[in-house]
Design a protein that fits this description.
3-stranded antiparallel beta sheet; 5-stranded mixed beta sheet; single chain; alpha+beta; 17 helices; 415 residues; elongated; Heat Shock Protein 90; Arc Repressor Mutant, subunit A
Length: 415
Amino acid sequence: EKYSIKQNNPQFKLLPNEQILSDLDLLKKGKLTNAALILLAKKETLQERLPQAKVMLEYRNSESQIPFDNRIEFTEPFFILIDELWKTINLRNGSFPIQDGAYIFSIPYFNEEVIRESINNAISHRDYRRTSEIVIKQFPQRLDVINAGGFPVGVTSENLIKIPSTPRNRLLADILQKTGIVERSGQGVDKIYYKTLSEGKAEPDYSKSDNFQVNLKLSAIIEDRAFALFIDSIQKELPENEKLSVLEVVTLNKIKNGVQKTDLDSEQINQLLQKKLIEKRGKTNAVFYILSKDYYDFTDEKAKYYNLKEIDDNQVFSAILQFLSKEENAKMKDFVGLFEDKLSRRQVRFRVDKLVSNKTLEQEGEGSGSTYKLSQDYIKEIQVISEAINIGMKEINKKRNKSIEMAKERPNKKR
């Protein structure tokens, strides 16, 4: 029926079951394929022929807890299992209220689309030659999906959303697409990343995966409410053909988290700059990117946006002066550390050399062993200025005191 609706072909339902199975390649040479068993077989048959096709759902009240509090075994065929499994997970689901002005909406701990896609991926990508079943571990604010078999050849947790997906069980993946369970084969991970990051949650974590299993960890915690509102506002304003892609959302999230420019996709950076969703800061090797001011408007740290502006020579000197007033002398690496992520080593050296040439700083030694301190000329200049200011302040105080005395004397003369 789902295939008939998806393909807009009501006549398909009238065909004999054997022909339907054959047309979908679920029946070959009169025998049901493993895909047919996984999707349609009675649970008794499935348990006998493919017991590893079951899914185990374990619940624990704490992420540090080893024994489970509850364990449910799902042995039904996939088309029944997927709905029952989600309903059971959803029984312990909750939501976070998010306020945007007068409007309040809720973000669920576990997004239904994300959980369903995660399970669909596990079903269609797992290695059925291995006897272990799919295990889902649910905690109050985290959910893990673990399936047998590592990533396909060439796929890693780092390039997961950048290269075309190759399902281990092609027929299963194709049937899920044809029946509308998934929108398009190979896009499940994209949806998982897109939905999760758009809700302000941590990036889906595949870091515990290895050659023998894929381990996906999904956090329910909203780490950045402002980012969720930022993405939501962008998508509402952009026309359908310009809405953010999953790679753009991932790149925005990386920039928000301070990832170095060398680890950012240059193509995505250029697109986001054109859309004015990010801003470029710094020069040459010290270039970095920040989210646009719109993001900071959703946070309680609006001043942070202005603090991320490019640093000027006066700010550089002020920071160096403050450091040397406490430490007396410094090495170049100390100065570089003062402006980490804002100026490159070359830019810092250029400014320090300029301070040496105008005799504000004094350099001792050569090369990497050089040390710097405030020059005697600068110290004397500051002392002269300080004395002049003190003299000026004394004169001002004298005049003020004299004015006060004169003001006191005037009423006495009238009497």
